[in-house]
Amino acid sequence: QVQLVESGGGLVQAGGSLRLSCAASRRTFNSHSMGWFRQAPGKEREFVAAIGWSGGRTYYADSVKGRFTISRDNAKNTVYLQMNSLKPEDTALYYCASKQVYGDYVPTNENQYDYWGQGTQVTVSS
Predict the structure, then answer these.
(1) Which of 6, 23, 108 lies closest to 57 in space, CA to CA?
(2) What one-character-per-residue DSSP string does 63-111 give?
(3) Are 77 and 5 in contact (CB under 8 A)?
(4) Rounded CA separation 94/33 (Å)
């Protein structure tokens, strides 16, 4: 079992930045691919970014490419999402997700992930 705890959300003005963190409970974190997803009110949850176990492979949704950066520190069992140039449409509940993988597989579909955090709210004011 893996427990994931997100932090770093908050209220920020458009154009501002936030860094989300997701701390994982399990020491085998470095065999897990990690993803960030978000869900805005009245909308379905959507993929934001994902990173392979080594950090060498990353994927982004088109809507955040060039503005968001996913990274990880396996020594700290933590994955990060640096969000710059935030827009009001980035307002959502952001979730961290984890999947144990073999090789460098990086899922981008939420149905492929096994463990989820409770989410951290990001609100961007115009």
Answers:
(1) 108
(2) TTTTTEEEEEEGGGTEEEEEE-S--GGG-EEEEEEEEE-SSS----SGG
(3) no
(4) 17
Q: What is the pLDDT of residues 44-99, one digit of tens each?
A: 999 999 999 988 899 999 999 999 999 999 999 999 999 999 999 999 999 999 99
> Listing from the earlier edge strand, what are the strands of the sheet with 68-73?
4-7, 18-24, 78-83, 68-73
Give the whole-number percent of the chain exceeding pLDDT 70: 100
- Distances in Å between the Cα of 104 and the Cα atoms of 15, 55, 80, 81 are 34, 9, 19, 20
**Which tokens belong to 22?**
């997701």
